[in-house]
Design a protein that fits this description.
The complex is a heterotrimer of chains A (about 325), B (about 325) and C (about 270).
Chain A (H helix, E strand, L loop, with lengths): L10 E12 L6 E12 L3 E5 L6 H9 L6 E4 L2 E4 L2 E2 L5 H7 L4 E4 L3 H4 L6 H12 L4 H14 L5 H4 L9 H13 L5 E5 L7 H18 L2 E6 L2 H7 L2 E6 L2 E7 H6 L4 H8 L41 H5 L5 E2 L6 E2 L12
Parallel strand pairs in A: 3-9, 3-10, 7-8, 8-9
Antiparallel strand pairs in A: 1-2, 1-4, 1-5, 5-6, 10-11, 11-13, 12-13
Chain B lengths: L1 H35 L4 H9 L4 H11 L5 H13 L5 E2 L4 E2 H36 L4 H15 L2 H15 L17 H39 L2 H9 L3 H38 L5 H10 L3 H29 L3 H4 L1
Helix pairs in contact in B: 1-4, 1-12, 5-6, 5-8, 5-10, 5-12, 6-8, 7-8, 7-10, 8-10, 9-10, 10-11, 10-12, 11-12
Chain C lengths: L1 H6 L1 H23 L32 H37 L1 H16 L2 H12 L3 H28 L2 H8 L4 H13 L1 H23 L10 H8 L8 H28 L7
Classes of the chains: A alpha/beta (about 325), B mainly alpha (about 325), C mainly alpha (about 270).
Chain lengths: ~325, ~325, ~270
């Protein structure tokens, strides 16, 4: 089922001109360059692209959790009315967990192996509200119920390694919800899980998002997942957003050659090809230090012309639509059918 | 939870069984060593007295079972050891067990204090260095640690004696208690503490170096783990993350290392006790080497091994308390 | 590999110091033809007090510098030979235990446990005093107390290599067990053992010095520990007799540790970034 595409546009997160620099003695390299997007309350924006596109870095940059060798530059970042363009350590700490929470890819390594579920949950709860230990425990149980963990009371005393993969990710989600955040950054939350379990987790996230009216930035490389959870999508290629818009628009009528390639390489989330040709995009994503001077996709693009080799195409809003596009020679709508 | 406890008991029971096997091997090995010595106990006695005739020696041999076949002697030795009979020291006219037990407290005091100091200071230095990795303070700590690591225990001991006792005259040169002074309990504790500073320092310096290196490496590794990022993502401050999430994980290798090195510490105690004339088992072993009192030396060796096995069991227990994953991984 | 060791500051300094010590050991006979025992001046001469005796004399009037040069020979030889012996025993025990597993493994590892339970230095003292103090017996004693860690490490590595596909395929094509161990398993298990070897030499040198310090050195051989032992009674006044040879022990051990660290980093380049 496709989520309703028409959502209220009350902006929760606004990101403008975000770049991530890899500091190096031989000169800085931009892993992510000039990325802009926004997420409204109650809306899910999917960041999609191949590995190395800079999706996870973007999420970590918002949380300021990047390693020290990476630096963040941005024209403007606002979250729920707060300016987070260049926050102090204390500012960002107040935001982490309470306004903006993150769910990571591998729940086993993301949970502390020597602390019980209770310790880790109660810690997150008591960090954001003054509450007694026993009340915090009750709230922890409530959170475990919310993420549908059966026999929650018995799970509190468990250590992460004794839980199944799906259970661990549910605990991670409960921990992310502990501070009553308004925005969830989900970094490939189902990639490390079995197919059936990952379906359950996706359903859970969708439900929670709807019930709690959360904004969600959902990072994935799986187009099928994008279709199932997201309202809008931003396609990233080699550190830049190349196309963005509503999921329906972008997937039904892709205009950037890379988006088209992605969709054709992936048979609509099923293994039945329905007459679609399964096609790989030739070549690989360039590393940030060896990007061509023009459009990064140009070497792999069938439609590239001379201008593509010299100038980086800017992301421009298509007049009269909700779609933005960074391409000099996009596919015409009628070309794709 | 009950399943967990059963796993744990199973594991600890298995470790206990292993320890018993190891003790048995040590006892048999000690018996073999005793028979490697040229001449037996009666020869030693004879050599001491110088006037023993062959008949008397034969009688004595029969009395101590020394004329029996090896296996029978081994059986007697093992059953004796099990009952706490480690032999008799003719030089000291006392049983080996009571001689060793008299000297054991000083050594245990020395070793326990040294481990505590080494783990505390070493971990602190290592964690501090890891927090400031590649900055000047980290380089300085690493260099100091490298020099500690290369300095043998006896060099540290002699150096400290020269500086603090001979030149500065701040601390006593040796011994455990100032002799011939009446003291209250509190004064006595203070006096012993003053006497222990230099020995503990000289024995622990090398281990401070080891734990600092280990704690630094393990802290750096832990700080790269995903769960540390999760802790920051929750909104925790750096000190909370370090103390609440990183430290416990980073301490695991340190705890393992303490278990591996407790035996070496007892070895180092011989040198420390000799330099500082402490009345411990190390000093006892040293003296008995020169008196060729082999039952006594082996008694020291055996008792130390027992203590070390015991300490290792305790450390295993601590480890299982610190790391819930033990039952799975081992 | 060698290039990477030399390019790291630790490896360079370590190798330089070690070459200096080796140079001292080799040139001892050339610079001090009278040997380390010759009485050259009055006893207890402070360093620099008399020309030609930059390190002074010991309690019998022997040249301390000459003793240190000759001592380098003993320390290095004892360290090297003891390490080779410990490696031979440790690698044999470890690879047998790791390759055969089960009963063999259980028996060998409990014996290894037993050796690791006994305080090594105390055990070395007992062995030397029972066997009588000679260079050979000191080497034996040091080797006996230092093989267990090698055995553990080799076993762990062999366990890892044993499961790899190339060893499994050797089994399938019917290669004999000793041949698999010698030609396939060991060569692929030994690189961590090389790092340990440098540390083992250092530990052996410390142990030898410790034994001599306690008066359990070979009385016919001048080692750094012998000199330290000679200087001990007069530590309050002429402390340099102890400290000078001690500094050389520290320097040698430092050099070996630096070299070990550098080799370790060269073998595991991805760890350097830490």
């Amino acid at each position: 089922m496709m989520p309703n595409a028409s959502v209220p546009r009350e902006s929760l997160l606004d990101v403008e001109g975000l770049s991530i620099l890899i500091k190096d003695k031989r000169g800085d390299v931009r892993a992510v360059e000039d990325v802009s997007f926004s997420v409204a309350a109650g809306e899910t924006l999917a960041l999609v692209g191949e590995s190395g596109a800079g999706k996870s870095l973007t999420a970590l940059a918002l949380m300021r959790l990047l390693p020290k060798t990476l630096a963040v530059e941005a024209k403007r970042i606002t979250l729920a009315g707060k300016d987070l363009t260049s926050p102090s350590e204390l500012d960002i700490r107040k935001v982490r967990g309470s306004i903006m929470a993150m769910i990571f890819q591998d729940p086993l390594s993301a949970l502390n192996p020597v602390l019980t579920v209770e310790r880790q949950l109660v810690e997150a709860i008591r960090l954001h509200e003054t509450i007694s230990r026993s009340d915090a425990r009750a709230r922890a149980l409530e959170l475990l119920d919310m993420v549908r963990i059966p026999a929650a009371a018995a799970r509190l005393g468990e250590y992460p390694h004794r839980l199944s993969g799906g259970m661990r990710q549910r605990v991670m989600i409960a921990m992310a919800l502990a501070g009553r955040p308004r925005l969830i950054l989900a970094d490939e939350p189902t990639t490390a899980l079995d197919v059936t379990i990952s379906g359950q987790i996706l359903e859970l996230l969708k439900e929670l998002q709807r019930d709690l009216g959360l904004g969600m930035l959902f990072i994935t490389h799986d187009l099928h997942v994008v279709r199932s959870v997201a309202h809008r999508v931003a396609v990233m290629y080699s550190g830049r957003v190349v196309e963005s818009g509503t999921v329906a628009d972008v997937f039904e009528r892709p205009r950037h050659p890379y988006t088209e390639g992605l969709i054709q390489a992936r048979p609509h989330g099923s293994f039945v090809t329905d007459g679609h040709r399964l096609r790989e995009i030739a070549g690989t994503v360039p590393v940030p230090s060896a990007r061509p001077p023009g459009c990064a996709f140009e070497p792999r693009c069938g439609r590239a012309e001379a201008d593509c080799r010299q100038i980086v195409p800017p992301l421009v809003l298509e007049p009269g639509t909700a779609r933005s596009l960074a391409c000099f020679h996009p596919l015409q709508q009628e070309q794709y059918a | 939870m009950t399943a967990l406890n059963r796993h744990l008991l199973h594991y600890l029971g298995w470790r206990l069984l292993q320890s018993l096997v190891v003790i048995t091997i040590v006892v048999i090995g000690s018996f073999m060593l005793l028979h490697l010595v040229p001449g037996d106990m009666v020869d030693v006695l004879g050599g001491q007295r110088g006037d023993m005739d062959a008949e008397l020696m034969a009688t004595l041999r029969a009395r101590y079972g020394l004329d029996q076949p090896m296996l029978v002697q081994l059986f007697h030795y093992v059953t004796g050891v099990l009952q706490g009979d480690l032999g008799y020291s003719f030089r000291n006219s006392n049983t080996v067990l009571s001689l060793v037990l008299q000297r054991l407290p000083a050594t245990i005091l020395l070793v326990v204090c040294s481990v505590a100091v080494a783990v505390f200071i070493g971990t602190l230095a290592g964690v501090f260095a890891a927090r400031h990795v590649h900055r000047p303070i980290d380089v300085i700590i690493s260099m100091v640690v490298l020099i500690f690591y290369a300095t043998p225990v006896f060099m540290t001991g002699l150096g400290l004696v020269i500086i603090f006792s001979v030149k500065l005259k701040l601390l006593p040169v040796g011994g455990l208690i100032t002799p011939g002074v009446d003291m209250t309990t509190l004064q006595l504790i203070g006096d012993v503490a003053r006497h222990m500073i230099l020995p503990v320092l000289s024995l622990s310096l090398f281990y401070i170096a080891i734990y600092a290196r280990l704690a630094r490496a393990s802290m750096l590794q832990v700080l790269n783990q995903d769960y540390i990022r999760t802790a920051y993502a929750k909104g925790l401050g750096t000190s909370h993350v370090i103390i609440g999430h990183a430290l416990r994980n980073a301490l695991l290798p340190v705890v393992t290392m303490v278990g591996l090195q407790i035996a070496e510490l007892f070895g180092g105690a011989v040198l420390t006790e000799t330099i500082f004339s402490l009345p411990g088992v190390g000093r006892l072993a040293y003296d008995s080497v020169f008196e060729r009192d082999y039952p006594l030396i082996l008694g020291v060796l055996l008792v130390c091994s027992f203590v070390i096995i015991l300490v290792n069991l305790i450390i295993d227990l601590i480890y299982t308390l610190l790391d819930p994953r033990v039952e799975v991984s081992r | 590999m060698l290039r990477r060791v030399l390019l790291s500051p630790a490896g360079f300094v370590g190798l330089l110091l070690l070459l200096m010590i080796v140079g001292m050991a080799l040139s001892a006979g050339y610079f001090f033809p009278k040997g380390p025992w010759a009485l050259v001046a009055r006893p207890y001469q402070w360093p620099g007090q008399r020309p030609g005796l930059p390190f002074g004399t010991d309690s019998l009037g022997r040249d301390i510098l000459a003793a240190i040069f000759y001592g380098a020979r003993v320390s290095l030889i004892v360290g090297l030979v003891a390490t080779v012996c410990a490696l031979a025993v440790g690698i044999t025990v470890g690879s047998l235990a790791g390759y055969f597993g089960r009963g063999v493994d259980a028996v060998l590892m409990r014996i290894t446990d037993a050796f690791q339970t006994i305080p090594g230095f105390l055990f070395a003292i007992v062995l030397v005093s029972i066997l009588s103090p000679s260079v050979t017996n000191i080497v034996i004693a040091i080797a006996v107390v230092s093989w267990p860690p090698v055995a553990r490490l080799t076993r762990a590595e062999v366990l890892r290599v044993r499961e790899t596909e190339y060893v499994q395929s050797c089994k399938i094509i019917g290669m004999s067990t000793p041949r698999i161990i010698l030609t396939q398993v060991l060569p692929n298990s030994l690189s961590p053992v090389i790092v340990v070897a440098a540390v083992l030499v250092a530990t052996a040198i410390i142990t030898e010095a410790g034994l001599s310090f306690l008066g359990l050195g070979d009385p016919n051989v001048m080692s750094w520990g012998t000199l330290i032992n000679v200087g001990r009674p007069s530590i309050r006044s002429t402390w340099f007799i102890c400290v000078l040879p001690g500094l050389f022990v520290v320097m040698t051990v430092l050099a070996l540790n630096l070299l070990g660290d550098a080799i370790n980093d060269a073998l595991n380049p991805h760890f350097r970034k830490r």
